[in-house]
Amino acid sequence: MDWPPPSRRMSTTRREQNLALLGALASGAVIAVALVLLLLSRANPEGSARLRGTAIDLVAPVWSVVRVPFDLVGTGLGYVGDYIGAASRNRDLEKLTAEQARALQTQAAIKSENQQLRSLLKVVTPERKVIASARIAGASSGGVVRSAVVSAGSDSGVTVGQPVRVAAGLVGRTVEVGSSATRVLLLTDANSRIPVTIVRTGQSALVVGASRALVEVRERVGAETPLVAGDRLVTSGDGGVFPPGIPVAVVVNGGQEPPLARPFVNPAGLGMVLIESAYLPVPATVPVDANTVAVPREAGGGRAKPSIITSTPRATASALPPPPPPPVTAPVVTATPAAPALKFHPKAMNVPLAAPVLSPTDNGRLSAPADAPAAPPQ
Amino acid sequence: MNRTAPYRLMSREERIDWWAGQWRRTLPGLITLGLVVLMTAPIFAPLPLMPQLGLLGVFIWATFQPAMMPPWLAFVIGIVSDLLFGLPLGVNATLLPLTAMFVRGFEARFGHHVYRFDWVMLAAVALVYQVLGWQAARFAGNATGFAPLLVQWLTTVAAYPAVVTLCAALQRRFIGPRS
């Protein structure tokens, strides 16, 4: 006797086939969802900011704890290393101190002179403020992203786009913020762009990362002046994130194009970093209602589509027997009643006076008269 | 794991044992997540020397226990990796399930192989993974050169024996000697 019966075995096989089919469908769905996520992150890179903040919040405490014994060992080795060659180093340092004491006197004179000149010129220097000092607690050291995770977040007042530095120089800037951890984009990341000044020549340039130890000096103003090895690059203050004067990198080979530079700060040896407030943050833009503000056509302002709006009444007039009350399109600009609604004078917006100016109509939409020459509002 | 009898035919003790052993199903996923977290260690080498441990975990568990590393689990691990590494969401989330699917299909078709062959397979899979990951990151706005990714590919291939030894030990200890 055949047991279990063959029909049952057949159904088992079919069941397996169905399960395999379902599995393949599920796998396909998973891949499709992942591809949609990739598409979304291209369209809106900031979409997952909150999730990212949570992720680094979870992982930073782990490394804060794990790195403690390693830090202790490192500190101990440092103490031992300090005793090796201490005498000769002491002699060198004493010589250096004597030299620097002389330089310091000159600097004091220069500093007071500088202060006088600044007060004469009424120079306003933005206040620099340390937001938080944080321990490095994580990294992303893959081929695509070079970043560090530090253990201070929005609870300490950290936001996206703040400079991160140590005494020796610039580390990077904050890009993702959790409540107690922050991701710092390092200078060596391929997406990092630091506006710098070359101290010797005064040229401005950009320091661009390349996912390796050295960074590239690009977009140099006056590229015909060659850089030499040893040229120091400091932040220029352009862009408003980094305060001017923070050491960034030193050029290692000037003849090459683009010149390569070595960052002053290697995050490998860092324990704590400082997060400063952005130097001159972009002011929060006042939300402007497009319906109440006149926008010159040249500025490509808003959703002005004159041809559609002006053609609509004509079409309705011919189609419908009782013509609707004509929408007030023609006198919108020439009419003085519209003038008080204008918040910006065309002249103030650097627009030629003859240019047609859009202004609100009764139906609340922007309209531009194609036929009526514009006159400046009173 | 190895259910010798249908559930209804088990004695009470057998059922308790069976339920108590269920956590082992999560082992491959947990180990791979642990490897992904290990990749966020605060180590700053001048070159990207950190191996793709998440890829290694998915590859190895898809060969050892295909049923415990389904593509949806690899997808979850991929999402976590993208969030932890600061990559555009979707890079690892696409590539890790593809890896799991590929390994599963390959094993089902051609069966198991000797160790060295798996290593060569991993080298090929990791290279394709790096190329596709490079292009996916570029698509999502993180353009880089490919040379650093080649370095990472080399370290990934070099790290395979250590990770496979660890995973094999865990499999033998907790899941069973047979795969």
TrEMBL record, chain A:
Residues 297-326, 355-378 are annotated as: Disordered. It comes from the Bacteria. GO terms for biological process: regulation of cell shape. InterPro entries: Cell/Rod_1 (IPR042177), Cell/Rod_MreC_2 (IPR042175), MreC (IPR007221), MreC_beta-barrel_core (IPR055342). Residues 140-255 form the Rod shape-determining protein MreC beta-barrel core domain. This is Cell shape-determining protein MreC. It comes from Glacieibacterium arshaanense. Belongs to the MreC family. It holds the Pfam family MreC. Residues 310-319, 368-378 have a biased composition (Low complexity). Keywords: Cell shape. GO terms for cellular component: plasma membrane. The keyword RNA-binding does not apply. The keyword Transmembrane does not apply. PANTHER family: CELL SHAPE-DETERMINING PROTEIN MREC.
Automatic annotation (TrEMBL), chain B:
It is found in: Cell membrane. Pfam families: MreD. One of its GO terms (cellular component) is plasma membrane. The chain crosses the membrane at residues 30-60, 72-98, 119-137, 149-170. It comes from the Bacteria. It is a multi-pass membrane protein. The keyword Phosphoprotein does not apply. The keyword Transmembrane helix applies. Keywords: Cell membrane, Cell shape, Membrane, Transmembrane, Transmembrane helix. One of its GO terms (biological process) is regulation of cell shape. Belongs to the MreD family. This is Uncharacterized protein. It comes from Glacieibacterium arshaanense.
